[in-house]
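fyi for ur records
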Amino acid sequence: MARRHHLIDASPSRVWDVLADPHRYAEWVVGTRRIDRADPAWPQEHARLVYTVGLGPVTFQDECVVRLCDPGKRLELEAMAPPLGTARIGIELLPWDTGTLVLVDEHPLRGPAARLHGPPGELLLHLRNRKMLHNLARVAEEAARAAHERTFAASGTDAEGHRGRRG
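which gave:
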């Protein structure tokens, strides 16, 4: 099992907002080129997301299904990548001081990839998930900064809490 963790400088609700938006999937999931179709019920259980993945000029369409959703805390997906099979991807969010500790656990579940899984596959999953968590952190932290700036702009104060001068 490829287990990784990453501390993100954004609240669990801000990280969850990214996970719950199927149209942002391509911003943080490694290899995803575009979202082709998203179930409006995403991320509720049984909701589906269809997307195009690729490496260089080679692309193909994959799909994932939500298998478990505990809003704001946990999302479990089954990614289908024919003809390789399917993979389970578990994402857990833990409040950590003012940020979020994100735990990812991924492993092949069905098909040839599950039967042939071993150390080389583990290494590839670890590398992919390290990049994926870095991407998720970037997207969630940018969203948190933008929300913070909007809050200050609406209140008429700057980031230090000072009121703007009018002159």
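The CA atoms of residues 2 and 125 lie 6 Å apart. thats all i got for now
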